[in-house]
């Protein structure tokens, strides 16, 4: 059985809306709902566990109650940090679950294909974290803002969610993080601290985390692009006209 924990208890501060960004409208529905619906369309997913701000629990219960097409779900209280929200979710996961995925509620553009690939890899390796190769050159800088070194881009990947694990692996990682008072930014970082290796699977450049208003504009475009199935990408007619004339 595969359960998915959705940390959704953030404040959305960088979004600057004055309310939790997961309530923002995206293609006609709240971001949280778009995320849950995509997972609900996956045959490999059995249960959704959503960690929410206690003050938002009632509204989220009502919204989910009105939404057809969701897989069986549980709503739990989130914590003051993302990691604590995930932990609370983990405590509520069904005892029958042997695989647990964690996915940011604020990543509504996740595809069913990537979800399936993560689940398949967890079955093989015990862990699977989706990621994409970094496109920009990245730099490590010193305190004065000067470039200290430029890591080899071929070895750099940007980590996304979902991140999936055999349940006992994730449970052990949370236990150790708690014992050591360690706060990580994602599940991979706390699992690696237990000495286990974590396998990467190819994510998707579309799978952005809605963090700032610009991300929301991009998400709207990507959603309508997906609905249209194929938006033809073509050379600018200005260029092709000139090339056509040159070629003649
Ligand atoms: N999250 C959570 N509990 C927290 C903090 C974050 O469940 N205490 C969730 C968010 O709701 C989001 C995901 O973790 O779905 C990723 O976090 P982030 O993008 O940082 O969202 P926010 O914390 O809401 O945004 P910000 O950091 O700008 O305030
Ligand atoms: Mg945050």
TrEMBL record:
Role noted for this protein: Catalyzes the formation of 4-diphosphocytidyl-2-C-methyl-D-erythritol from CTP and 2-C-methyl-D-erythritol 4-phosphate (MEP).
HAMAP family linked to this entry: IspD
CDD domains: CDP-ME_synthetase
Record family assignment: Belongs to the IspD/TarI cytidylyltransferase family. IspD subfamily.
Site (Transition state stabilizer): 14, 21
Protein name: 2-C-methyl-D-erythritol 4-phosphate cytidylyltransferase
Keyword Transferase: yes
UniProt source species: Megamonas hypermegale
Pathway linked to the protein: Isoprenoid biosynthesis; isopentenyl diphosphate biosynthesis via DXP pathway; isopentenyl diphosphate from 1-deoxy-D-xylulose 5-phosphate: step 2/6
Coiled coil spans: none
Site (Positions MEP for the nucleophilic attack): 153, 209
Catalysis: reaction(s): 2-C-methyl-D-erythritol 4-phosphate + CTP + H(+) = 4-CDP-2-C-methyl-D-erythritol + diphosphate
Name of the coding gene: ispD
Record bears the keyword Nucleotidyltransferase: yes
Keywords: Isoprene biosynthesis, Nucleotidyltransferase, Transferase
GO molecular function: 2-C-methyl-D-erythritol 4-phosphate cytidylyltransferase activity
